[in-house]
Amino acid sequence: MRKKEAGLTKGLMKRLILTSLFVLIVTGTSFGDWVAPKWVQLPNETSYGMDVRMDRNDEVGRTLADDFLCTSTDKITDIHFWGSWKNDIEGEITKIHLSIHNDISASQSQSYSRPGEQLLWSMDFDSGQFAKRLYKDISPAYERWLDPINQQSYQRQGDQKIWQYNINIDPSVAFEQQGTADNPIVYWLDVYVETNGGGEFGWKTSSQHWNDDAVLGVPIPTGQAGISWSELGYPYSTPPWQGNSVDFAFVVTTIPEPGTIFLLGTGLLTVISRRRRFNNMAQRRTTYVFGGNK
After folding, report:
1. DSSP 6-36
2. 145-179 residue pLDDT tens
3. Counting Cβ atoms within 10 Å, is residue 81 exposed (0-12), middle (13-18) or buried (19+)?
4. Domain segments of the chain as ranges
5. DSSP code of 158?
6. Rounded to whole angstroms, how far apart are CA atoms 261 and 263?
7. 265-283-69-62 Cα dihedral, nearest 10 degrees
8. Cα 38–chain centre separation
9. CA-CA distance, 2 to 194, in Å (whole number)?
10. pLDDT tens across 225-283, in order?
């Protein structure tokens, strides 16, 4: 289980910013999709990438969530995420639900962190309020598919097309983060989608790991209000990733200040020179596989 960082220095904050810029540059991701990324976890484009179901066509109220770090006080004006349709049978997403929660850290009684009950921001985006594009077709290779509600749903040949969804948020209703370099804050991004019923849609995993695992949320079975969260990990039938952490692919951005744009530009050479260091930062670790609540 990934443990929380006890202390994050200004130097680490700077490296995180530079790392984000580096990832955008070396992967060729277009700056037309975002200008000032606050957090970057790009999709795993290999055959070990996996999509975890996040639609509610089967009337299961599933929600997926992943954590990210805030080191500057500004508004989240764009959220981008990647996903795929099972067997590439494409339906239509009619609504994307996004919400941001506080963090409940891992403890002796709960071995993994998860979103807190404090809802900090929430918004639904209907068709016409978001854009999509085909990010990549990895043919002839395939990526994997899993609905953690149904362990038998796992497929090695789950899909080949990776879709990117871009959501612009009006600054007047955007969430304003409160973290700083001296006092960083961990937030959770919760996501689910509703579709027209044609096909199953999953959130793409990322090969970039940070902090704790992503989680699956379902309504508490007793009928009480709230969500029951379970930690996510790769199934044991996915060598060499079996048991490894699951993190999802998403980018959080903001409207940059002029000084921020200047720093991003002048930091370019530094980012490129630290490519090897970045690769060392993307380390895996072993955790629990998909399963029931712990």
Report:
1. S---HHHHHHHHHHHHHHHHHHT--TTT-SE
2. 999 888 778 888 999 999 999 999 999 999 998 98
3. buried
4. 10-281
5. E
6. 5
7. 120
8. 13
9. 31
10. 778 888 998 876 666 667 778 999 999 998 754 444 444 444 444 433 443 443 444 33
